[in-house]
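Need tokens for this chain, all 171 residues.
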Amino acid sequence: IFFLHDDLPISVSYSGFLNDDDTNTITVPAVSTTADATSGVGDYPIILTGGSADNYELTTVASTLTINKATLTATADDQVKIYGSENPQLTVDYSGFLNGDDTNAITEPAVSTTADATSGVGDYPINLTGGSAENYELTTVASTLTINKATLIATADDQVKIYGSENPQLT
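Here are the structure tokens for all 171 residues:
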């Protein structure tokens, strides 16, 4: 028979109760761990201390609290530029930081594009590569650099002619 002690943030299960006994017939042990909301990824002991039972020899067994990596998403920001201009600064937006963490808590991914000042009008990928984090599973999302047409102005040159003469070559 297993009973769960629901009052505690960390649950405790029991085996061995007889005669319809349950946790109401014992003094339950205290449950603790060294981990808290800011603890990093890893394994932490769960300790049971104290507790007693009139009809049972209470044996406590420690266990482990495993903290896994949280998800952190790095998304390259979409960018726009005009044909012939230098690429804008390529930037990244993050979602999922916890406990006051920021980019100082990770090795940021490299951000790059194949487009340069001579690339023609169109869409070019902005990619994220690499990056790592001790407490986060880093997911990267690519985006797009859009190159728009540059403005080209065609202006007819002013011309002069003398009355009655042929028109000059128009340029």
